[in-house]
Fold these 2 entries.
Entry 1:
Amino acid sequence: MAIKGLGQIDKEYDGSKLRIGIIHARWNKTVIDALVAGAIKRLKELNVQESNIIVESVPGSFELPFGTQRFIEYQSKIGEPLDAVIPIGVLIKGSTMHFEYICDSVTHAIMNLQPRVNIPVIYGVLTCLTEEQATSRAGLVPGVMHNHGEDWGAAAVEMSTKFK
């Protein structure tokens, strides 16, 4: 049993002046859609205007780090810079080593992206051993676990406003 997310402290942060990007993989669509919806729901609860939530997609989780960097650069280039971005992906273990390589590569690339882009990049990648774990963490199994996308939305607002 997991303890739910970030707790109540995130209510201290006001996202009304923020532009938050969400870039998601298209693999595991049902889980991805739920996670994106959870992130958007929480961003709105923290006063981020719907027009300031920009959503894009890439083919898979492996493409998230480069897609995230290009997404941030493009938004700056058009004069609408982001305050934070949430790359969202779902990796589910199969019968080969592919899972381990992709998890490790994507995790390190997203982590190393933050100093280069100089905005918060929230780690929104589920790395699950089973489909059941993924659906639970997306809030798709009632009463089992909460939607982790909500935590990622809250983290984006906190990290965008906390040290200004």
Note: The beta strands are 20-25, 53-58, 84-92, 124-128.
Entry 2:
Amino acid sequence: MRLVQRLPQRWRALASEVGKFASIGAVNTVINLVIFNLLLQIGPLKANMVATTVATTCSYFMNRHWTYRHLPKSSLRREYSLFFFFNVIGLLIESAILFIARYGMHFSEHTDVIAFNIAKFGGLALGTIFRFWAYRRFVFGAHKPDADSASEKIPEPDPPATVDANR
């Protein structure tokens, strides 16, 4: 019996999501790194912004239609806006690492290409952890129409206080 089959259903579903998310992440990491390296000569921060924007758009459609297809869909505008917002935060995480490499460690985009790729990969790893959490929590898993409002109960008033006759 496979280990995954021994897990409770909830954990199996999460394992499936993580696997799909990782597969899409691998594809988009390649897209991101290729574009980043092609544009590195314009500067690491600019190249990172362009590469991340292209990879983000690809990632949204792949995740929406494969990783999280089993979750309720909300409007494309809402989902993509949230998706883009959380990717901006992920971009800031990546850019902070590249900023430190460029301006804190004084790497040059002309001579330290490997160092920039290591920094880029480290930023991608940190950003990816954040993105997985944010996508699952806020983008694809958060919209459940009226499910939250239907389960809210109006609190019942406290029972009237009893008077102790022995006083």
Note: Helices lie at 3-6, 9-39, 44-67, 76-104, 113-139, 147-151.
